């Protein structure tokens, strides 16, 4: 989707002249193991609207390795709900809804309606206890099409058994759940689907293993990265991770190398002002250095390994230690 919006953004007229017609596309499902990117989905729909693509045809879905089909935003349902949560409360694993435009508000678009036969519960990843509606927790799923395990040639399947056969520490302790490894929350929407029923919407916040513990709070990389990308037009991509309790920010520069030094104060200031964090290291690299997998997701841990092994070949590195 990102390649389409960037590469074809100025070619819609020529595509239309060549007879490209998307009016018969009924469903275009965005499948991702991450938080739905609201701005990208909207820009994709807006761009191809001129070619006949109906905005309702573009919908979101959430699936992961333990269950490929957890929820789906179908065309028969209402428009996906977007809620605004307090980013400061989210750092303490609490979900507090606020009005649009409120200070520190973060928009989250639902990943879709939970599919028939699928049960979702939000659990504490440490204690394995069920969480209340106002708390952020790990998404656990139970259904007939859950995966049963990983196939491995190393014979260590037992190491991953907890992912696929977990039980709650209290409450319903008999049901076997699969742990998705993603943090999120459930919220009953006020909207109804084609059958007239209200539905529970699932909101995915981020991956548990990529969340960063800093100053006793949980930060999600995508929030910091979004702030950094907005600071300068020459920053095309950004990825963050931690290294010995230091926050490392890697930015890709689309411009001349003398701009690299100018980016450092912009990056450190925006992270301090919006997230109250001090950046330990700023690394400016060429376009394409941040690894992206086949699903378009950043491989932050691979980037961290490359940074520690001094393999990034940076344009500029600033240490603030």
Automatic annotation (TrEMBL):
Could you tell me the superkingdom of the organism this chain comes from? Eukaryota
Q: Which SUPFAM superfamilies match?
A: Acetyl-CoA synthetase-like (SSF56801)
Question: Which InterPro entries does the entry mention?
Answer: AMP-bd_C, AMP-bd_C_sf, ANL_N_sf
Q: Which Pfam families match?
A: AMP-dom_DIP2-like (PF23024)
Q: Which family does it belong to?
A: Belongs to the DIP2 family.
Protein's recorded name? AMP-binding enzyme C-terminal domain-containing protein
Residue ranges of the AMP-binding enzyme C-terminal domain?
A: 210-312
Q: Which organism is it from?
A: Pagothenia borchgrevinki
């Amino acid at each position: 989707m990102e390649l389409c919006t960037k590469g074809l953004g100025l070619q819609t007229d020529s595509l239309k002249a060549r007879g490209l017609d998307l009016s018969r596309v009924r469903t275009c499902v965005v499948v991702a193991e991450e938080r739905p990117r609201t701005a990208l989905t909207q820009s994709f729909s807006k761009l191809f609207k001129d070619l006949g693509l109906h905005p309702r045809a573009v919908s979101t879905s959430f699936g992961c390795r333990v269950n490929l089909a957890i929820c789906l935003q179908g065309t028969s349902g209402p428009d996906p709900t977007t809620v605004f949560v307090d980013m400061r409360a989210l750092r303490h694993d609490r979900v507090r809804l606020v009005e649009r435009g409120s200070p520190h508000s973060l928009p989250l678009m639902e990943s879709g309606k939970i599919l028939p036969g699928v049960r979702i519960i939000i659990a504490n990843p440490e204690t394995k206890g069920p969480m209340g509606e106002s708390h952020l927790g790990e998404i656990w799923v139970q259904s007939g099409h859950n995966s049963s395990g990983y196939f491995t040639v190393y014979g260590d399947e037992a190491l991953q058994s907890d992912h696929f056969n977990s039980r709650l520490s209290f409450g319903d302790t008999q049901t076997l759940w699969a742990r998705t490894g993603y943090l999120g929350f459930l919220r009953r929407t006020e909207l109804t689907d084609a059958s007239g029923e209200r539905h529970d919407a699932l909101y995915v916040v981020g991956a548990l293993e990529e969340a960063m513990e800093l100053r006793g709070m949980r930060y999600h990389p995508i929030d910091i990265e979004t702030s950094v990308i907005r600071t300068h037009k020459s920053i095309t991509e950004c990825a963050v991770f931690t290294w010995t309790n230091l926050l490392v920010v890697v930015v890709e520069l689309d411009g001349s190398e003398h701009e690299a030094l100018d980016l450092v104060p912009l990056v450190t200031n925006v992270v301090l002002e919006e997230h109250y964090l001090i950046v330990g290291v700023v690394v400016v690299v060429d376009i394409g250095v941040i690894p992206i997998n086949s699903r378009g997701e950043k491989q932050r841990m691979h980037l961290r390994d490359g940074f520690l092994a001094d393999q990034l070949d940076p344009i500029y590195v600033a240490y603030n230690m």
